[in-house]
Amino acid sequence: MKRSLFLCLAQLLNLQAVWLDVMLLNMKPYSEDYRVVERNSQHNIGPNNMGRFGIFEAHYGGDGELALITTVPIAPTAKTVEELKALLQEYLQALEQPIIQFDDVPKHHRESN
């Protein structure tokens, strides 16, 4: 029952199969945060492909290992200025963690946006 419910939900939300498997079907606890990601000069990111570094959303499995990362950087949006400030604080925390090399993340661990 749970599996079919999650599959229906995933189809409605157009979630990627890898994310569904890692996060929902296995029913493992997971966490998420923001990380600085560097892409090599052949695969720049951002407007007009000008940047090498960006803030990406990262998801971790119950074992704490990186399970999924977005393929494009995220932009801060919020309903209130207070929420936006809190989100920007989370982005700043990403600068304190090791930088993820995008090319080192297996393709099946990348979420297409």
What's the short version?
With 113 residues, the chain is an alpha/beta fold.
Main attributes of the structure:
single chain, about 110 residues, 3 helices, 5 strands, disordered N terminus
Would you kindly provide a written description of the structure presented here, covering whatever features stand out?
The chain has one domain. By secondary structure, it is α/β, with parallel strands linked by helices. A hairpin with a 5-residue loop joins strand 2 (53-60) and strand 3. Strands 4-1-2-3-5 form a five-stranded mixed sheet. The protein has helices spanning 2-13, 17-25, 81-94; strands at residues 31-38, 53-60, 66-70, 100-101, 110-111. Helix content is 31%, strand content 22%.
